[in-house]
Each structure stands twice: as structure tokens, then as C-alpha cells.
Amino acid sequence: MHDRPLPAPVAALRDAVSRALDGGPAVVPLPRTSSAPLPDDAALVVRTSGSTGTPREVALGAGALTASAHATHARLGGPGRWVLTLPATHVAGAQVVVRSVLAGTPLTAADPDARFTPDGLAGLLDPVLRAAGDEPVYLSLVPTQLHRLVAAADDGAPRGLRTLARCAGVLLGGAATPPRLLDRARDAGVAVVTTYGMSETAGGCVYDGVPLRGVRVRLTAPDGSGVGVVELAGPTLALGYVGDPAATAGAFPRDDDGTRWFRTSDLGAWSDGALRVLGRADDVVVTGGENVAPAPVEGLLGEVLGGEACVVGVPDPEWGQAVVAVVTHESATSPRGAGPEGAWEAVTGDELRRVRAAVADRLGPPSAPRRVYRAPALPLRGPGKVDRAGVAALVRQHEARG
Question: Do 219 and 295 belong to one domain?
Fold first, then answer.
């Protein structure tokens, strides 16, 4: 059986990645944002998602990309065939290409311009799984894609989810995954591995809460509950930000012994020996003098209401900020980033009281959202990443209209 021909842009990218890993010119999938020269040892340049302001160009060396790919294969059980369903302009998609090159296995990719659908994924995976035989097949998804697969199965179209369950490993990252969605996928037999990382760490470097080989994790300035800012070290770290030595020095501090760390903007805690990421430190909502981390609330709302949730703080004269949640309709199969401004419904009455009681009981009264809305979608700022500022703006617009 012949391997599916790669779309021309992906084939060109794979060739360029192969050359870059062998000492050739760096791969720059997106147009440059500055004229600053690239580091001599750069192999890949990707942009950050811009969650803390203007997106930066991150330079990654061949050593970091190689260390990440080999550690991923070691964790998954060995090299295999990779299927690309993410934009290769971002680090998660680019790393799928890197892993395929280093494994020396055929790469299969969706048309970069095609919309992701459950049936489309099944059609992409079926021939790969047949051709692979005993060779493992891997792919990376973001929670949005997994949500569509699960929603389609629940609506009577299980082909995509069933085909996904035949893969040896499914890396899931880019955003927090609602526990209910994760449980539903695993119950269907999908070998989901949650990943945590970013462009500055060559993509995911903590799988299912456990660091990959060579990666170190520490929490700085932990509070009384053990919550602190996540810092990462190891061979997968980026060279730095192109043309911005001050930002590089601030984000990549060194210990007295010379160990180089990447200081994330995320809060985390240890739970049963695994890292639990609680969300960005600057996403914390301060309400009535209490700090509320959105991620645990979002996970619980996914269990109680289904769908995907985003929790934000909006100005409030009494509380300073009020905790407000926007939750997508559980059965929605439209792209999460499409039409978030359409048809909002307020959760009211007994249902709102039930939701608030469930959150207060599990996470404490300050975490209970004062208002909850259902929406058809959540705005995005990158693959799988919710635009929190966009959600907060939509909340303010909706409430201003009364």
C-alpha cells in the first residue's frame, strides 16, 4: 500500500526540517516579525501565542528539538508513524514533523486548508493504521479537536472517535483539558497523553504531569497551599527570543551552579507526584480579596455542565472582580473559535444555584461564579488556546446590552 502523498507545503516543510536538523538553515514557517538576525545555531523559529502581549519569535536549536523528540518516543514506547492534524506553523505541529524526520518514518498530514472534522480524521487515519501494521501510529490534538470527536460520537457518529482509539498514542495539549472530556475519551479507548509545555520548551515537556527524560520542574515562591510559579529546565529549552536579549535574560535565568531555567507565567502544584497546572498567574481573579485560579473552576464546570468553560474576572463595585463563567453547549460540534458572539443564554434559577453550590463545596465559596453563560463557542488566540481577554470583553459587551 502506498503512503498518502503529503500536501506540497508540508512536504517542503519536512524537507526543510530535515536539512535544519542536519545543520542547514533554520526553518521559519511564518513571516519574520523583525529584521533581527537569527542565532547561528537556530534550527526552528516559531512565534509565541502572544498571551502576554506582542508575540515573540522563539529560536530553537537542533539539540532541543532532537532531545524533545527522543524523549517523547521514549515515553510513548518507541518511534512510530506520525499524523499531522495541527498547523505546522506552531511548535506542536512543527514537532510532529521533527519526530517523523528523526524516526525515519512516513509522515501523513491533513490538507493545511481543510477544516478538521471527525470523519475527515477517520479518513486520514484509516490507511495509515492499515499500512503501519504493528508499527505504532501517533498524533497530536488540541482539546477542541477531541471535543468535536466526542461530541460527534455522542450524536451518533462514532467513526472518528473509534478510529482515534486505534492509535498507539494521542498527545493532547495547547490548553487545559476538561476532566469530563478526558474521561470520556479514555472510556472510549483513546490512549490520551496530556502534555504541558510551550514554544520556549520545544513544545510539551511534561506528560501526564511527569517530566520527560532530562526535564526538571520546580515551583518558585510557593504559597501556604503549595501553589507556585512553574519553572522548567533541561535539554529542550529554546535558545531565546530573537532580537530581544533583555527578554531572554528575564525569561531564562541561571542558578548559581549554571543551570538554566525557563520561568513560565503558570501556577502549579504537586499532586501525588504529578505536576498540576492551575493556569496563568496573570489569569488569577481577585474577588473580595481572595485569589481564584480559573483552571480548577473550569474543570469542575465541565463536569457539572458539560462543554468547555472559560472563567474570567469582570469589574464589580462590591467585589473588585466578579467571577464569571462562559460555557459552550456540550453537543456543539462547530469550531470553538467560530461565532462566539452569537446566542448567549444565562444560566439562572435552580441550575445556577446548583452550579454555585458544587463549585463552593469543592473549591470554596470565592470560586463559585456569580454569573454563568452558555455560548456556542469561545474565541481563540492560537491552536486550542482560549482568548481570555476576548471572553472577558464579550462578557462586558453582553452585560452592557442588558
Answer: no
